[in-house]
Amino acid sequence: MITVEGLHRHFGGFRAVDDASIEIQTGSITGLIGPNGAGKSTLFNVIAGVLPPTAGRVTMAGEDITGLPPHELFHKGLLRTFQIAHEFSSMTVRENLMMVPGGQSGESLINTWFRRGAIAAEERELARKADEVLAFLTIDHLANEKAGNLSGGQKKLLELGRTMMVDAKIVFLDEVGAGVNRTLLNTIGDAIVRLNQERGYTFCLIEHDMDFIARLCDPVIVMAEGKVLAQGNAKEIMQNEAVIEAYLGTGLKNKIKEEANG
């Protein structure tokens, strides 16, 4: 679905992404891991149109989407979430979801004067869809709660719910587990798997929790210093000497040796 070829993103003399090439297959849940400063979020930002590339090419289903702005990519079904959830804190959880679809009738001043019935009908349908999404994510009991009152994990679920309000094809999740307790992280993981298996979503996610990555992702791509260091399934990645040295650490290396000798 997504092919990245020879991508660069430089900030002055600093090469945040340095000749990275990856492929995200349709229907996959691809993991992207690496140490802090490896260029993972910058790569996401370039693919999702938040930042223009210095060089390189991004295609989606064969179409060149290099440098397209986020709103155009949104309409093509490419969505991206952030490490810190961006909710409308004073609005309810349901209202946050209802805000997502573009081109709503109520956005037109003329319609607010002459098509109030059509606007009301559209809002009822959006509310129905929002409630369906919340039930899918098992947070329907929070529908009328102010979004600003949610916990970190609940806000991450809300962000995931936003992708369900439109026809998403591929979703980039940036550190979905950051600041989330284990119970809610499992709920988020279950929702990602169900969206992948039942609704055909393709995912690419950045995450530091290797247990979470191993449970959900295949393949796993490793970045370090702006470059792609390795790619494989979770077991292969955790046994890769270069990955261990660059990211996973000697503690894991010793653990693997102990298990091999045990």
From TrEMBL:
Source domain of life: Bacteria
UniProt-listed InterPro entries: AAA+_ATPase, ABC_AA/LPS_Transport, ABC_transporter-like_ATP-bd, ABC_transporter-like_CS, BCA_ABC_TP_C, P-loop_NTPase
Keywords attached to this entry: ATP-binding, Nucleotide-binding, Transport
A molecular-function term among this protein's GO annotations: ATP hydrolysis activity
GO cellular component: plasma membrane
Domain ABC transporter: start-end pairs: 2-250
CDD domains, per the entry: ABC_Mj1267_LivG_branched
One Pfam assignment: BCA_ABC_TP_C
Residue ranges of coiled coil: none
Name of the featured protein: Branched-chain amino acid family ABC transporter ATPase
